[in-house]
Every structure is written in C-alpha cells, then in structure tokens.
Amino acid sequence: LVSISTCGGEFFENPGFAEHFFLNSLFVSSNSRKLVNEGAGDYIPVFLSEIPLLFERNILPLDVAFVHVSPPDAHGYCSLGTSVDITRAAIGNAKHVVAQVNRCMPRTHGDGIFHISRFDAIVAVDDALPEIMPKAPDHASMQIGKYCAELIEDRSTIQVGIGHIPDAVLSCLHNHKDLGVHTEMFSDGMIPLVKEGVISNRFKKKHKGKLVTSFVLGTHELYSFVDNNPVISFLDIDYVNDTKVIRANPRAVSINSAIEIDLTGQVCSDSIGTYQFSGVGGQIDFMRGSALSDGGKPIIAISSTTGDGYSKIVPYLKQGSGVVTTRAHVHYVITEYGVADLFGKNLLQRANALRDIAHPSIREELDREIFSRFGKRSFRMQAGDH
Q1: Which one of 13, 92, 184, 212 has the lowest number of neighbouring Cβ atoms within 10 Å?
Q2: In the chain, which residue ranges form alpha helices assigned H by DSSP?
C-alpha cells in the first residue's frame, strides 16, 4: 500500500491491517505513525515533487489506484477536488483505477479533470470530507507571525501550509497589498485574505491572477470556497513544486517549520531521532525555489520550544535525525524571540545568531556549547572582531 498524507484512523487502526497490508508511506501522518514506526510499514524519503517519477519509472509500481472524485458534470467529467498532488500521476500509471464518486467532493479547476470513462470501477458514496479544525494561535505563534509578516513585502508570492504558525502569519497580512499565492497546499486561513483582496495574484509572472495549489485541507468552509472557484488552480505536484516554476515569481516567500535546528543551521523537520514523524514533503523544493527567486526569502519559522518545554534550537540534532534542509539552504530562521538571517554567515556567526533567538532558558547552555566548539574565537566574535 502506497500513500502520502492521510486523514482518519479507522482503516489503519484495524487490527487486521498488518496481516494484509504493508504501508509504504511517502509522508507519515498522525494516523500512520504507529504503523510506520512499529514495523507494519516504512517511510520512503523523497521530495514531494519527485513522487510522480517513482510511478512513471515503475520504481513504485501501482496495480490499483484508489481515487476520490466529484460527481461527473453534464459532459461526464469528474474532478479530483481537494487533492490533485500525486493523484494525477497515480491515475496515469496504475494498471487499474477505482474511483470513489462523492457528491461532497468539491469540483475544482486545473489538472484534476478526468472523464468518468477513465475509471475501471466506480463506487458511489455520500460521505462528508474529513475536516481539520483551526485552533487560535497562541502568543508565541502570533509573535512569529508578526516577524514573518515584516519580511513579506507587498506583491510577494507566498507559500504557507497548515497549523498554528501559518495561520498566525496569514492573520498578520491584512494590511499587505497585492500578494500572490503559489503553494503546495493551503487551509482556511487563506480565505479572508482572498475575500478582502489582499491576495490578488495580480503581480505574479506565473499564473497571473490565479491562486496556485496542489491540494487543500481544512474545514467545510474551505471546501465550499474552492468549489467551482475559477481563481484557484489545482495543479500537478511535480509542476507546483518545481524550483524553476517557484523562482519564476518575484519575491517568492516560503514559510516552513522544523522539529529541530542545530547551531550550524541544519534543519530536521521529519523525524524525532529515529522516530519517523512526518516526511520531507515540499520543504526543500520551496526553500530552494524562493531563495533563487528575485527578492525571494526562504523562512524556517518555529516556536523556540516544544510543548514539553524542550528547546528546538540545539547544539546537535538527536542521533538518527534526518537533515531535510541543509545549512546551505537556510536563510531566515524565526522564533518568537526574533529573526536570525544566516545567509552568508560562517559557522560561529550562525551559532551566535541562533542562540540569540533561542528560549532564554537555554541560551547559557548554548553559550557553553559554542565555546566548547569554537573556543576563544567565540569571545572575539562577540566583541566585534570579525
């Protein structure tokens, strides 16, 4: 069984799942973490933009693709609705395609249109789509959102995802003008900015006037918002996440998260030590694409600590952690304590900049680690001897 992000737990929680299926996950979700980490599945590290290649080159052969579509229109065409991403590639490469036709699935514009004759079997359902309810951002997230908003210029093209920090960033953009969106996914926080005209997409060079995405995940309000909305284009993930496409829009700003960042700027965003938590996804696609954009800004935005109070800025990544974004790719790192611009800085300068935005309770420990690594040189640097 091959999948990316999934919602709902009934299927994976079935006691007989492991007897009949082995999950090869391309992005681990909360409902599949136990399977992947306990032997009934595994994780395939891959850029989201390259997953279609695994199907096309038969590296991951697909016997049957199960897809979720809208009812056919008057001409017999169904829409992939909320999720074009890798689904289009799966349809194009599977030996058989089974479509679940759901009247609750919105009809979206873009690459996800297929004639009903393309499917080998059809199952009709009337099931509400899974919803992710937004939560009010906390104080730290709001402060991070303000710092991110200060870096975003008018007429920028932004990429944000789902969660406390993306929602906080979006809530801080109401005074901006003529923003564009080119993102792999978005959630409910984008809706008010589109309705207010803050997001106009007028100054994009790629898909001017269109909000480009590959999938959405959120509430019923979001699904209604994208339904038959001609302003929103759902496109193939290998195109949306292509760095050549991302960089074509000026002032591209990508905002991504992390689990840990070490003092040199290495970013782990998919695992906690050897425990597989999520996946590579599209982080590096957008980090690199925005860095190459004219006036672009790649941002890693994180709270300074975990919910349990552990620092996310650490001397060394946990043993077994995966580096998703290398220190050479990292430019801006933002916590609720400030902004660290690492681009062009040497290792000691990076360490000092990251220490300064770490939680105050950890800074003394980080100072000791910096001295242990860089010796007396660290004091000269702090004194201004560059």
Answers
A1: 13
A2: 10-13, 17-20, 33-38, 51-56, 87-93, 139-151, 164-171, 191-196, 220-226, 237-240, 243-248, 283-292, 347-356, 360-374, 377-382
From 165, 196, 339, 324, select the one nearest 260 (Cα to Cα): 324
Give residue for tokens 């106009």. Answer: 200
155, 131 Cβ separation under 8 angstroms: no
State CA 179 to chain mean position distance: 19
The count of other CB atoms within 10 Å of the CB of residue 380 is: 13
- Euclidean distance between CA atoms 19 and 39, whole angstroms: 12
DSSP state of 328: T
Residue type, 348: L
The label of the residue with tokens 């089974």 reads 98
Distance separating alpha carbons of residues 40 and 33, to the nearest angstrom: 10
Active-site residue identified among 13, 38, 150, 184: 184
Tokens coding 250: 């000026």
Asked if residue 163 lies in contact with residue 144, where contact means CB atoms within 8 angstroms, the answer is no
Cα separation of 21 and 28, whole Å? 16
**What mean pLDDT do residues 26-45 have?**
92
- Tokens 């923003």 belong to residue: 179
The position carrying tokens 């640097």 is 381
| pTM of this structure | 0.94
For 106, phi then psi, to 5°, come to -65, 155
Question: Does 131 participate in catalysis according to the annotation?
Answer: no
Which DSSP category does 88 fall into?
H
* Cα distance between the two ends of the chain: 54
pLDDT of residue 7: 85
Residue 237: CB atoms within 10 Å: 29
Tens-digit pLDDT profile for residues 59-99 = 999 999 999 999 999 999 999 999 999 999 999 999 999 99
211-213/109-110 β-pairing: unpaired
What does the mean pLDDT of the chain come to?
Answer: 95
Q: Cα(116)–Cα(114) distance, rounded to whole angstroms?
A: 6
- The sheet with strand 2-3 has its strands ordered as 2-3, 23-25, 41-43
C-alpha 262/C-alpha 265 separation (Å) is 5
Per-residue pLDDT of 288-334, as tens digits, reads 999 999 999 999 999 999 999 999 999 999 999 999 999 999 999 99
